[in-house]
Amino acid sequence: MEISKKIAKARKLKGFTQEELADKTNVTVRTIQRIENGESLSRAYTLKSIAAALEMDYEDLIQLNSVETNSPIINDKDEKRFLRIFTLANFTYLLIPFFHFLYSLLPF
């Protein structure tokens, strides 16, 4: 879930209006509106004060859940396989010039 949606949901669960949350966090109402609408992502200090006012953990607030953001789920086995193939593919850039050099030394 996006940070903006988490903040809006937590605020509504606490029964706060945007004005009340703004008063508790010492930011403007417009800043709260922009954050909740996803128009802007605020500074860490502001997000920490919002998390404190909503009595939630800052780390939980900023953590994005990969399932809810529609990103593909990649397990460790797939990731290791990808890294091996990627490393081998990059290794060929070292080998190809070397083989071209050897090929030029062959007598024809």
Structure explained in plain terms:
- The chain folds into 2 domains: 3-62, lambda repressor-like DNA-binding domains (434 Repressor (Amino-terminal Domain)), CATH 1.10.260.40; 74-108.
- 69% of the residues lie in helices and 0% in strands.
- The chain contains 6 helices and no strands.
- Helix 2 (18-25) packs across helix 3 (29-37).
Number of helices: 6
CATH fold assignment of the largest domain: 434 Repressor (Amino-terminal Domain)
**What would you say the CATH architecture of the largest domain is?**
Orthogonal Bundle
- What is the total number of structural domains? 2
Give me the count of strands: 0
Structural class: mainly alpha
**Top-tier CATH class of the largest domain:** Mainly Alpha
Shape: rod-shaped
What is the chains' assembly state? single chain
Largest sheet: none
Q: What percent strand? A: under 5%
pLDDT average, as an integer? 82
Rg result: 25 Å
Task: State the end-to-end distance.
Answer: 65 Å
By CATH's scheme, which homologous superfamily of the largest domain applies? lambda repressor-like DNA-binding domains
Percent in helix: 55-70%
Q: Show unreliable segments.
A: 66-71
Order of helices and strands: HHHHHH
